[in-house]
């Protein structure tokens, strides 16, 4: 096994990039006490129809008890990674290890312990919220109890709406229901593809609270376009571009390493106004200054 270390002493952060195959007794290596949940090993996905490489030689590690955000613009490869994690598409090369199991040989066992929230809700308008949880629970976790059902409804704040048909719910309520479904049966690995896409700010904040509540008991991976969302929720952020990993680490480490502060653009009316603005900014922070003037 070849392991490449990148250290940042100021944050005491240690990152791993794995190449080659891992023997079974080395699949539980931990970082700072956090055991490994998922490993992407030299993962590549090429679509033969349009000869496009969506993901190229990607190696990345996700840890149990942590939230990891896959951040990138459209076309960065986020949804393709989610599709390979869930077994929807097979990798062109490389492999994925989930809780010590190889996705090529143990996909059925992996899926029994995995929860998925797709980018678009897979719900039935004629069923109620409660019926959805009972249906998906009977498929994934037959021993799921009524107590766990009520707890799931309370966790996503849908107890008062459990007898409503899904067709009558708002977009935010539907997303919360989809997230509740993904956590059915105490999923050890939960994958969410843009869980806050298309919801209002209040629903978005509620979804944040749900993810933070469940993070301790699973490996939680989600995709997003929003840097602020990744920063608030994530223990680690992986930034993707054109199917490749550009950087990965805790939000504080990435800001310290790559951040350039804030830029404020103002349109002045006169020279006097310009002087007043500089004085004001200097009062707020001693590092502020004017870098361009027209």
Strand content: 25-35%
Give the biggest beta sheet: 6 strands, mixed
| Class derived from helix and strand content | alpha/beta
What string, H for helix and E for strand, traces the elements in order?
Answer: EEEEEEHEEHEHHHEHEHEEHH
- Shape descriptor reads globular
Mean pLDDT: 80
Spans with pLDDT under 50 lasting ≥5 residues?
A: 1-30
Give an overview in words.
The chain is an alpha/beta fold and 294 residues long. The protein folds into three domains: 1-113 and 216-261, Rossmann fold; 116-187, Helicase, Ruva Protein, domain 3, CATH 1.10.8; 265-294, no CATH class. It is built from nine helices and 13 strands. It has helices at 78-85, 107-112, 129-140, 146-155, 171-182, 201-214, 227-233, 251-258, 271-284; strands spanning 2-8, 13-19, 30-31, 34-47, 52-63, 67-71, 93-98, 101-102, 114-117, 189-193, 219-224, 236-241, 244-249. The strands form three sheets. Strands 9-10-11-6-12-13 form a six-stranded mixed sheet, sandwiched between helices. The chain is globular, with a radius of gyration of 22 Å. The protein starts with a strand and ends in a 10-residue tail after the last helix.
